[in-house]
Amino acid sequence: MSKIMIAASSWRVLQASEAELPQGVSATQKPLKSKRVPMRGRKQYGNAALIDAYWPEDHLQSSRAPMIEFVLSGMVALPLGDYELRCQPGHGVLTPPGVAYSDGSHLMLDTSVSGNVSCEVMKMRPYKGGLECWLSHTRNGEHWSHRSADESCRIANNQAAFYIETLTEEMQKGKARHPQISNALLVALVNLVLRELQETPIFLPAPAARYDLQRSVAKESHPIDLAKEYIRGHMGESLTLNRVARYVYMSERSFSQLFRQVTGQSFMEYLTDYRFEEACNLLQNTDWSIEMISGFVGIKQGRLRALFHQRTGASPVHYRQTDNNAEK
Fold first, then answer.
1. 241-245: long-range pairs with CB below 8 Å, 24+
2. Alpha-carbon span 295 to 160, nearest angstrom
3. What does the pLDDT read at residue 218?
4. How far is CA 135 from the centre of its chain?
5. Contacts of 234 (CB under 8 A, 6+ apart)
6. CB within 8 Å of 57: residues ≥ 6 apart
7. Where are any strands of DSSP class E within the chain?
8. How far apart are the first and last CA of the chain?
9. DSSP designation for 106
10. How far apart, in whole angstroms, are the C-alpha atoms of residue 96 and residue 125?
11. Does the pLDDT at position 84 exceed 60?
12. How far is the C-alpha of 98 from the C-alpha of 58, rounded, in Å?
């Protein structure tokens, strides 16, 4: 982790940050020529709109998914919003959702270094519950990415997506012991990718066939299934439509419409029902206090009591007593 940094959203934020750049990494301000333009109507990876904005004159874009880049060879200049990071082999940059990065058209070469004519960067980002990996090259003034099956693959493993998402959260929040946790997540992520590439590589065929492959892989990880899984794992936290939509890389509107189409309920209706059912299970099968149950399922005590009165006609305590008496 000493060679990995998290991309700041702007030059001002980078300058204000107390975190030091990894040794050998430098930053240079590069003012933007254009303003942020929200992406509308563009679909990628089934129902997920991965790119949420772009800067047309700067050839930058931002994504709803985090991305991590590892410099494999050469001296690299990575454009990130209104500044540029100059990195060496062994360095890595984690770009959180919403931060502008290259749309793939930049040479990436650090031209300030004499004799630097080629570089190679490995990139990874989550997609539909899996992980997309690819190589980008610049050689002799030419740049390309995703050109052949030997340089791009997709791994249908939701654990890999979990690692990179959690790594992003840890590095952004900066809580106690986050360097140790981040390092463990990074090691787990890289080892999982290596294992998957060795055992079950899913290489991309020619560009024309990519869409079919995406559809076939996506069948195993529908956005709403991923959303439900995320709700189960974060039930006690403050869950909003925006937060869960970002997790599956969809806009709020598209996610809300798809969620109702698939489940027959709105997001909040489903969330409330799921939390209430869990509260009922805990009342029936544990001796936890109402306060503990309330915190676990993410519903305030007053609201939880009101739900029980509304749906069962009894208080939580009476519901537990009635259920226990029924079993006897």
1. 241/267, 241/268
2. 29
3. 37
4. 20
5. none
6. 33, 34
7. 4-6, 26-29, 37-38, 51-55, 60-63, 67-73, 76-80, 83-87, 92-95, 101-102, 118-127, 130-139, 142-145, 152-155
8. 57
9. S
10. 10
11. yes
12. 16
CA–CA gap between residue 285 and residue 283 (Å, rounded): 6
Residue holding tokens 């772009």? 54
CA distance 15 to 27: 10
| DSSP helix/strand/coil, 328 | coil
Exposure pattern of 143-163 as b/e (b: 16+ CB <10 Å)?
bebbeeeebbbbbbbbebbbb
CA 212 to chain centre: 23
For the chain, the 3-state helix, strand and coil shares in percent, each to the nearest 5, are: 45, 20, 35
Helices (H), ranges, 92-177: 158-173
Cα distance between residue 274 and residue 266, in whole Å: 12
- Give pLDDT, residue 300: 92
In the chain the domains, ranked by start, together with CATH numbers, are 4-220 (no CATH), 222-328 (1.10.10.60)
Distance CA 64, CA 215 (A): 19
Q: What is the mean pLDDT of residues 302-316?
A: 93
User: Are residues 158 and 129 in contact, defined by beta-carbon separation less than 8 angstroms?
Assistant: yes
pLDDT score of 213 more than 60: no
Q: Who's near 54: CB < 8 A, 6+ residues apart?
A: 36, 37, 39, 60, 61, 62, 103
With contact defined as beta carbons under 8 Å apart, do 131 and 124 qualify?
Answer: yes
305 contact partners, CB below 8 Å, separation of at least 6: 290, 315, 316
Closest CA to 231 of 294, 290, 135, 297: 297
| Residues in the chain, total | 328
Mean pLDDT along residues 174-180: 82
Residue type, 44: Q
In angstroms, rounded to a whole number, what is the distance separating the alpha carbons of residues 144 and 141? 10
Residue that has been written with the tokens 């990628």 in this structure: 44
Report field, pTM of the whole predicted structure over 0.85 = no
